[in-house]
Fold:
Amino acid sequence: MEANFFNKETNSHNISHAYLFECKDSNKSHKLVDSFIKKILCTSKAKKNSFCDECKSCNSFNVNSNPDFLQISPDDKDKIGIGSLRGDFDKNRGINSVLNETSLISKAKVIKINCAEKLNEEAQNYLLKILEEPPKNSHIIMLSSRPYRLEKTILSRLIRIKIQNSESQKEFKGIKIDPIFSEILKREYDLDSISDKEFNSLSNLFNETIESLDNFNYSKNGILDTWNDDNLNFRLNVLKQEIFKSLSGSYKKTNHQYSLITSTLSQERLFLLLEEIISFQAFLANKIPINKKVQLDSVFDLI
Ligand SMILES: [Zn+2]
Structure:
């Protein structure tokens, strides 16, 4: 689907005013998205399915000076605040001034927002107003590896396209999935009989669990409150797989899209944690009556 999307002809009738590319912040993703943006901006009619790389618009895009294009990335604090969107800091002209002007050298105007999950609440509200009444001939292109962090009101206004990283993703019924999720599915479920509904709810559960283990979000109390439910074993499996991954050192190699608390622990600590989880899971499997919250507490004491 991804290949079809990027290879097809674009014209004013088939381009939406707002997209979300779900992808890692990788060179591959940026290359694909930038080529899509160039295609939108290109003024040449010579090539239907691509950009010309010769017109003024393409040339200026290549040297990062296309006046009809604005790129916004997280600031020094790794956030995107409203100031970055409004252009308060003289770093850029601001979204509104680009979008509300007539395009200068290109066919349209494009705003690209990198790591969009880092938009803070105020910035998301600001953006939502623009998405609700998009100026003519303008496109907002967002990239995010964690789209579930964006407000639902924003998500509902975006066309979502997934860009997969082929080296680290596996497939389930033609859908590419995170390798850790894939590992858990293979171990714990009969993949031939799993329904789409069940798959989707596990996929949501996986994302939710990963998010709670995210360095940035991590809160022991939060975990004690939310993990202690019917999905406890699944969540422990996610944690266990993440530990295996940290132990094998594959975090560094694969340039993982999220940074989890497990990736900062020493090897010794990871082994202790693993032992604790394995005995916890043995209790659960054997239905030994234990206080799950106390047990969880002692597991996360190791972090
Ligand atoms: Zn061109």
In short: The two ends are 41 Å apart (CA to CA). Residues 2-162 form a domain with the Rossmann fold fold (CATH 3.40.50.300). The chain has a mean pLDDT of 86.
